[in-house]
Amino acid sequence: MEEYRPKLLIVEDDLDIADMLSAYFRVQGYETFTANWGEDGVKTGQTSHPDLIILDIRLPDIDGYEVARRLRSNRRTESIPIIYLTEKRKRTDRLMGLALGADDYITKPFDLQELRLRVRNALRRASQGTLTNPVTTLPEGALVEERLAGCLSKSDWAVMVVSLANLDAFREAYSFVASDDVLRAASMMIQNVMHRIGNPGDFLGHLGATDFVLITSKEKAPLLKERIRSQLEQSLEYFYPVKDREQTVSSSRALAVELSELDSTDGSYADTEALRSALLARKA
Fold first, then answer.
1. C-beta separation of 237 from 182 below 8 A
2. 32 and 98 both lie in a single domain
3. Which residues contact 218 (CB under 8 A, 6 or more apart)?
4. Is 86 contained in some domain?
5. How far apart are CA 231 and CA 186, in angstroms?
6. Which end of the chain has a smaller Cβ tally under 10 Å, C or N?
7. Of all residues in the chain, what percent are helix, strand and coil, respectively (each to 5)?
């Protein structure tokens, strides 16, 4: 059987660079496709189903940011790893690229060996799937499902969802870097409360991008819920710039804490999806 060759799409308007990269990666065992215009890059991405895209930002028609937006908004291409290859060196350019879900960012002139290794690493991460959240490093996905499934066979458990409401509005106003800081700080505050008053085996992970899930015992759940809510609510206003605090904190779009809780006395659940749905329905 012929060995699978990873598909690589190169979106680059400099024909010499595009041809050089295509030839280099073919020698490295990749199947390559090239596009010299942004619109062509979007179309080729949707039709060739590449395993990874090397994407220039400065293109003759739409820029690389718009290419990434369109690919990320399509269900068939939303998870393809993207590495930006560009002359833009400003921090704001890097942040813009990363905010759109880029997996890496390399500036010109570049080292081919380094680019090859970055491509290899991005493909390896994609093939392994996600087990931890990239912002908080807390477990997510299969690891959370496994712990939720464990609850269904036990007689003493409590599951709590801690959500940060209006984080999308905060991100739009202050950047994704600031919203990531909020998530990281919230995860640390929750973990500190758990360490002080929880059980040694309690679990914290992500149920969604802005939803934390905490698994503990029925006995500990009420106090944990009270302390976590208090700790977060006292801290959220300090993530806003001083000039915006008074006006923003009283707004309906301000950061807020939502909590929901279920335990083994609330009934039985057929599977983790039923448990998850019941939890999210109780958010308030």
1. no
2. yes
3. 156, 157, 158, 263, 264, 265
4. yes
5. 9
6. N
7. 50, 20, 30
Specify the number of domains making up the chain. 2
Each residue's pLDDT expressed in tens, for the chain with a length of 284 residues = 456 789 999 999 999 999 999 999 999 999 999 999 999 999 999 888 899 999 998 899 998 889 988 998 887 888 889 998 877 555 555 566 555 566 777 877 888 888 898 898 888 777 656 677 778 888 888 888 888 888 888 888 999 999 998 888 888 788 777 888 999 999 999 999 999 999 999 999 998 778 899 999 999 999 999 999 999 999 998 999 888 887 776 677 789 999 888 887 877 787 888 887 887 777 65
State residue 65 phi and psi, 5-degree precision. -65, -45
Asked which of 128, 152, 185 is the last residue of a domain, the reply is: 128
* 273 and 150 fall within a common domain: yes
Q: Are 78 and 161 contained in the same domain?
A: no
212: domain CATH number is 3.30.70.270
Q: Look at the chain and count its residues.
A: 284
CATH of the domain at 90: 3.40.50.2300
Where in the sequence is the domain holding 30, given as residue range(s)? 7-128
- H/E stretch holding 173 reads helix 167-174
Is 115 in the same domain as 147? no
